[in-house]
Amino acid sequence: MSEAPAAPPAASADRDHDLGLLLRPPGARPGWRLLPARIAALCAVELQKLSHDRTELYTRAVQPALWLLIFGQTFTRIKAIPTGGTPYVDYLAPGIIAQSAMFIAIFYGIQIIWERDAGVLNKLLVTPTPRSALITGKAFASGVKALIQAVVVIVIAAVLGVALTWNPLRLLGVAAAVVLGSAFFSCLSMTIAGIVLSRDRLMGFGQAITMPLFFGSNALYPLSVMPGWLQAVSKVNPLSYQVDALRGLLLGTPAQLATDFAVLAVAAALGIAAASSLLGRLAR
Q1: Helix or strand or coil: residue 200?
Q2: Does the pLDDT at position 26 exceed 50?
Q3: CA terminus-to-terminus distance, the chain
Q4: How many whole angstroms separate alpha carbon 26 and alpha carbon 111?
Q5: How many other C-beta atoms are found inside a 10 Å radius of the C-beta of residue 100?
Q6: d(CA 78, CA 72)
Q7: Do 122 and 283 form a contact (C-beta atoms < 8 A)?
Q8: Which residue from 245, 215, 246 is spatially nearest to 231, judged by alpha carbons?
Q9: Exposure check for the chain: N or C terminus, fewer CB within 10 A?
Q10: How many CB atoms lie within 10 A of CB 244?
Q11: Looking at the predicted structure, is the pLDDT value of residue 42 above 70?
């Protein structure tokens, strides 16, 4: 006589497992695992806006082109600024890369004020995403935009005969310096936005600080030709460290790359912390 088939024991185990899930929901994934994905998603959202309207890329390429074509070529001929034997247009090119990246990032706070006025910011703040992730996503999106601008400036400089390096590792370092510098300046802009709470006021503050940051750096001339007080300003200006890193990587001039990247990384981290702390005030 054949025996009746025994019931599979796995069914009971599955029922116990399902009952356990009902009584005790699965634990949430640690926040530090979700943070990079959320930052990347927010960065991608910011960059999608650029894909719908590329006018900004074309219009922002005009100013750095004029700096290199007019200012750079003229001062190369008159040899008015000592650059240690480097042609002035070569010396200027890294400074213009940093300048164009800063000009993109420094008005980034206007966008976050627009998002507040449109109600987008409040919707983002009620999601589980940390405020630091929101700011970091926007900061690195501005860095990617600045990186696109840097490529345009590098192409123009190459056409003008600037002796740039094409070493892939050095170009990766250039990309890192551009992104870190832009992250800091965009966070500075968003911090100011959290203080002034108005697009008009932010425009005024942005215009008031961009030129002092630019002329108070080593983008146009070496530290040695500056008066003492301006040298002190340049030494606390993150743009100076970005220019020094870009110049050392692209031209091979002497540079303190470890110090430059350390200052840029710390400045970006402090900028993210400051902008994140004021994000709630901006949304109110």
Answers
A1: helix
A2: no
A3: 80
A4: 38
A5: 23
A6: 10
A7: yes
A8: 215
A9: N
A10: 26
A11: no
In one-letter notation, the amino acid at residue 78 is I
- List, in order, residues 6 or more apart from 152 with CB less than 8 Å away: 57, 61, 64
3-state secondary structure of 178: helix
Higher local confidence (pLDDT), 247 or 30: 247
Instruction: Using alpha carbons, list the distances in angstroms from residue 192 to 136, 167, 184, 205, 282.
Output: 16, 38, 12, 8, 10
CA 279 from centroid of its chain's CA atoms:
18
Angle at the Cα of 132 (from 119 to 274), degrees rounded to 5?
95
Both structure tokens of 104: 């993109």
Asked if 270 and 186 count as a contact pair (C-beta separation under 8 A), the reply is no
CB 139 within 8 A of CB 186: yes
Identity of the amino acid at 192: I
Q: Are 239 and 230 in contact (CB under 8 A)?
A: no
Instruction: With CA atoms as reference, report the closest residue to 145 among 58, 257, 18.
Output: 58
Per-residue model confidence (pLDDT) at position 64? 84
